[in-house]
UniProtKB/TrEMBL annotation:
Its main location: membrane. Keywords: Cell membrane, Copper, Glycoprotein, Ion transport, Iron, Iron transport, Membrane, Metal-binding, Oxidoreductase, Repeat, Signal, Transmembrane, Transmembrane helix, Transport. Residues 601-632 are annotated as: Disordered. CDD domains: CuRO_1_Fet3p, CuRO_2_Fet3p_like, CuRO_3_Fet3p. One of its GO terms (cellular component) is high-affinity iron permease complex. Belongs to the multicopper oxidase family. Residues 618-632 have a biased composition (Basic and acidic residues). Residues 1-20 form the signal peptide. This is DEBR0S2_09758g1_1. The gene is FET3. It comes from Dekkera bruxellensis (Brettanomyces custersii). The chain crosses the membrane at residues 558-580. It comes from the Eukaryota. Its cofactor is Cu cation. GO terms for molecular function: copper ion binding; ferroxidase activity.
Length: 632
């Protein structure tokens, strides 16, 4: 009796294998000069000598093999497939020091995985130090093996991103710098539409397009809209949702919106496809060349290109994704087994640099990739301690429902992404910008959650507010949860979920090639976070964060001190001229011009006699000229 269904299922399994394709990509990175926005030529990361990187398009169930050779002489690399579950292939999730070692120059890593149960719009990108913002990224589309729950005629991908006229590796040392004590993010110059400024989309009349809009940026959310056309949202982050029509979309970095756009019958006119930076995320607009960008929906190539189509309505009328309803109506997990509460804070440490913290910890990578620790730690794998005390690691039990409560004590918006899962959005608090203090989630306040909550993999939290998400720990692996603003990830805004480590040990291993990469990079892959293989509970010499500011010396104090030093040397006019957000080489110039005493004053982090905070911050004339990030 039992053999019948078994036979049938193995028949379909066989059929599935026959129908599944394997896609092999041999990719080599290199630097090359490109000019995506037509305004500035600079080095970007090329793929096999070409730019931009290709889109990947596969069918549900297919195998993908990416043979990635690092041809960059001066940087490591890695590749993450954003939104893919990587079930039983955690080793290919692409996060340096969590699921693999960074790929050093001249080495080749083979990523080899299937996409058995996912479809929709995803993307891939380097997960090494902001590198993807230099161009190493592309769309990853998985065609549904079944029919989509909506009709369309054409399937079109569209990537959007902010663009910098500087290499990220040049911006990082200016950003993570004591002369940028407020943590002001570098200011991008333009916006790209399918990798060009003022792009065009050639359309046919009376046609329903499935437009897959993917924000492949590393910083800014964007508002998008099309003159005289509406969007019908049918999927977000690979999850089908009940159709919802809107004129304006708000898309954070890493989010995807699949929308239907029906074109007009009349082909006499072309229409503006607008992109607009979320200006609230910028500390200053100095340095922005195009805050908005006008692209063209072209019906008729002999008709004139459209003018900018501007309206302020986007601010109030953009679709709130919280209210979307997934088509397969998964009910809210009615309770959680394990709750993780994390508070976001931005603050300075003793080196004067502005860091980002979850519960007072700024993520510092371990000495051994956490997956290597899982696989080498035997019975200790369920003990959080072995993953280090500065990685913000949480061990999850098999199949438990996890509720993650995130309180945002910062005054900015942040788009958070969970690897290895999609999650239910149980609650998202309103914008509390105007509140003096942040408003944390209050468990005892009355609240009715949606019956069929929104499900996605990247969700923003509003200023000084909170969100709550739930998911089932049914995908054993080491999964990163982090802010997708690359600047904030560099500041340490991440936690690590070690999901069912015992099952990882049973079902997963790493390839020889995976180990070769670690060896080539001189990184151990066995041992605890301190690379100790003898005593897994001994974390001596683990990587830890910089120590706190000395007592009585606050972040505000250091800001005032730095600014008063700069002002003293250069004078206010120069500072006001440069602005504080992007100060190309300014800190170096200032530092070079400091007197030995002043340098000493900035250098001596350990000295308790530093000018006391009152005195420093009373220099309000100087302070008042700069934009301060609140939240500390
Ligand atoms: C990838 O490279 C290997 C070895 O160099 C070669 O055998 C294979 O044909 C290449 N595949 C593709 C798709 O280029
Ligand atoms: C990957 O590329 C390298 C270098 O071209 C080649 O030696 C190797 O055989 C390739 N591997 C696969 C799986 O294609
Ligand atoms: C590459 O990674 C190794 C190991 O983490 C590190 O020591 C090295 O500094 C990195 N190289 C660069 C250029 O960042
Ligand atoms: C990488 O290979 C090239 C060519 O073989 C060589 O010139 C270069 O020194 C190598 N770089 C490293 C970091 O090993
Ligand atoms: C990819 O993984 C499959 C399944 O483990 C294996 O059979 C195949 O040999 C692998 N291919 C490469 C190029 O590593
Ligand atoms: C964007 O580029 C992709 C290929 O790179 C192309 O298939 C697609 O049609 C373009 N999208 C638009 C809206 O033009
Ligand atoms: C557009 O044209 C098609 C056929 O050419 C017609 O069926 C349809 O009703 C027209 N739509 C509008 C809005 O006029
Ligand atoms: C859009 O950007 C352009 C160029 O930066 C600017 O001239 C224009 O005023 C902007 N439009 C609006 C309404 O902000
Ligand atoms: C691109 O669009 C912006 C904003 O609408 C406009 O100010 C600018 O002139 C356009 N640039 C080009 C090269 O067309
Ligand atoms: C569509 O979105 C609006 C506003 O975001 C929401 O009120 C409404 O319930 C949604 N409807 C559906 C069917 O998703
Ligand atoms: C963060 O540190 C402060 C002061 O050191 C302490 O009062 C607070 O309890 C800590 N919060 C968490 C969540 O660890
Ligand atoms: C975040 O803000 C809330 C409300 O002001 C406060 O209770 C909490 O301690 C803060 N968290 C941290 C880590 O500072
Ligand atoms: Cu952030």
């Amino acid at each position: 009796m039992r053999s019948v269904p078994l036979l049938i299922s193995s028949f379909f399994l066989l059929l599935g294998n026959v129908l599944a394709d394997t896609h092999v990509y041999n990719w080599t990175t290199s630097w090359g000069k490109e000019n995506p926005d037509g305004l500035h030529k600079m080095d970007v990361v090329l793929c096999n000598g070409e730019y931009p990187w290709p889109d990947i398009r596969v069918k549900e169930g297919d195998r993908v093999i990416i043979n990635l050779t690092n041809g960059l002489p001066d940087q490591n690399t890695s590749l993450h497939f954003h939104g893919l579950f990587q079930e039983n292939t955690n080793e290919y999730d692409g996060v340096p020091m969590l699921t693999q070692c960074d790929i050093p120059p001249n080495e080749t890593m083979v990523y080899n995985f299937t996409v058995p149960d996912q479809h929709g719009s995803y993307w891939y990108h380097s997960h090494t130090k902001g590198q993807y913002m230099d161009g190493m990224r592309g769309a990853f589309i998985i065609e549904d093996k079944d029919d989509a729950p909506f009709d369309y005629d054409e399937d079109v991908t569209l990537t959007i991103t902010e663009w910098y006229h500087s290499m990220i590796s040049d911006l990082i040392p200016e950003f993570l710098n004591r002369f940028n004590p407020t943590g002001a993010e570098p200011i991008p110059q333009t916006l790209l539409f399918n990798n060009t400024l003022n792009g065009t989309w050639n359309v046919k009349p009376d046609t329903t397009y499935l437009l897959r809009i993917i924000n492949i940026g590393g910083f800014l959310s964007q508002y998008v809209w099309i003159e005289d056309h509406s969007f019908t949202v049918v999927a977000v982050d690979g999850v089908y949702v009940e159709p919802n029509e809107t004129d304006y979309l708000y898309i954070t970095v890493a989010q995807r919106y699949d929308v239907l756009v029906h074109t007009k019958n009349d082909t006499s006119k072309n229409y503006a496809f607008m992109q607009k930076m979320d200006e609230d995320m910028l500390d200053t607009t100095d340095g922005v060349i195009h805050m908005n960008s006008t692209n063209a929906v072209v019906y008729n190539s002999s008709a004139p290109l459209p003018d900018e189509y501007y309206s302020d309505n986007y601010l109030d009328d953009f679709l709130d994704d919280f209210y979307l309803v997934p088509v397969d109506k998964q009910e809210l997990y009615d309770d959680y087994d394990y709750q993780i509460k994390i508070d976001v804070v931005m603050d300075n440490l003793d080196d004067g640099i502005n860091y980002a913290f979850f519960n007072n910890i700024t993520y510092v990578a371990p000495k051994v990739p956490a997956l290597g620790t899982v696989l080498s730690s035997g019975n200790y794998s369920t003990n959080e301690l072995v993953y280090g005390t500065n990685t913000n690691s949480f061990v999850l039990q098999k199949d438990e429902v996890v509720e993650l409560v995130l309180n945002n004590n910062d005054t900015g918006k942040h788009p958070f992404h969970l690897h290895g899962h999609v999650f239910q959005v149980v609650e998202r608090g309103p914008d509390y910008t105007d509140s003096e203090d942040p408003v944390p989630y209050n468990e005892s306040a009355p609240y009715t959650a949606p019956e069929y909550p929104m499900i996605r993999d990247t969700l923003y939290v509003r200023p000084q507010s909170y969100f709550r998400i739930r998911f089932k720990a049914d995908n054993p692996g080491v999964w990163y949860f982090h802010c997708h603003i690359e600047w904030h990830l560099l500041q340490g805004l991440a936690i690590v979920l070690i999901e069912d480590p015992e099952q990882i040990q049973k079902d997963q291993s790493v390839s020889e090639n995976w180990k070769d990469i670690c060896n080539a990079n001189g990184v151990p892959y066995d041992g605890n976070a301190a690379a100790n293989t003898n005593n897994f509970l001994d974390l001596t010499n683990q990587n830890v964060q910089v120590k706190n500011l000395p007592a009585g010396f606050t972040a505000r104090g250091i800001v005032a001190l730095v600014f008063s030093c700069i002002a003293g040397i250069l004078g206010c006019a120069a500072i006001c001229y440069y602005g504080m957000a992007q100060i190309p080489d300014m800190e170096k110039k200032v530092y070079a011009e400091l007197s030995p005493e002043e340098r000493l004053m900035l250098d001596k982090e350990d000295d308790d006699d530093i000018e006391d905070e009152e005195e420093a911050s009373s220099d309000s004339k100087i302070k008042g000229r700069f934009i301060f990030r609140e939240g500390w």
